[in-house]
Amino acid sequence: MGGVNVKNTMVERVLHIIAPHPCSGCGKVGVVLCEDCKNDIISEPFLGCILCGVPQRDGICPSHTSSITRSFTVSERIGALEQLINRYKFEHVKAAALPLAQLLDETLPLFPEVIELIPIPTVRSHIRERGYDQVELLARFISSMRDIPIRRVLMRRTNKTQHTVGRDERLMQASDAFCLKSPSFLHGKTVLLLDDVVTTGATLESAAKLLKAAGATVWTATLARQPLD
């Protein structure tokens, strides 16, 4: 996998020199997201329940029985944000990680004094395809920006992918997707569970259930919400 990482990084650097990145919003050459388009995304935050979309500032409706206490999402997966995420996840544009992390940093509130950042583990085949772990890379930037530690306590039990399956199968797959290492470490902690995109909320909910059972208060953070059609 290391060879793939190096190869993709070298290719990206060469392409950036001979064909600089255009902005994912307006197309201006030079950056993957210009300041104007960044501000446009920030000005239209997602202020709904991540599970059903109903307006809700804390990100989770009281009507849901959830292991998540609070949830923060940059915006809907539309327009410039959708293009930026797609380039990051599917077009090997690793440079998109920083502006995406900056958008998330603008979205997140002030944290308690003690909080742990926990990235959702990425499916191994996706890491090989991209040459990098997109959630892990975001976590490193957020950790640096907010001066909070990353705790890699979640492990995948399966490597099934969800982007081609429907709601019922997503829920079934996610229910047994993760396990915890060092669960005693989490007791009494507030944790920020990080993923890139939330669709049904099944992945976040499955991971949050384990973390809560270990004694943690669970907040979540995602770049975008994209409901199933």
Q: Compute the separation of the termini in Å.
A: 34 Å
The percentage of residues in β strands lies in 15-25%
Q: How large is the radius of gyration?
A: 17 Å
What are the secondary-structure elements, in order, as H or E? HHEHHEHHEHEEEHE
Bulk shape: globular
Largest sheet, described in full? 5 strands, parallel
Oligomer: single chain
Q: How many strand units?
A: 7
Count of helices?
8
Identify low-pLDDT runs: 1-7
State the share of residues found in helices, binned by percent. 25-40%
Keywords:
7 strands, 15% strand, 38% helix, 229 residues, globular, alpha/beta
Can you tell me about this structure?
This protein has 229 residues and is of the alpha/beta class. The chain contains 8 helices and 7 strands, in the order ααβααβααβαβββαβ. It has helices spanning 2-18, 35-42, 79-90, 97-107, 124-130, 134-146, 167-174, 202-213, and strands spanning 68-76, 116-119, 154-156, 178-180, 190-194, 197-198, 217-225. The strands form 2 sheets. Strands 1, 2, 5, 6 and 7 form a 5-stranded parallel beta sheet that branches. β6, α8 and β7 form a beta-alpha-beta unit. α4 (97-107) packs across α6 (134-146).
Brief digest:
This protein is α/β, with parallel strands linked by helices.
Layout: helices, strands, pairs:
Elements: H1 2-18, H2 35-42, E1 68-76, H3 79-90, H4 97-107, E2 116-119, H5 124-130, H6 134-146, E3 154-156, H7 167-174, E4 178-180, E5 190-194, E6 197-198, H8 202-213, E7 217-225
Parallel strand pairs: 1-7, 2-5, 5-7, 6-7
Antiparallel strand pairs: 3-4
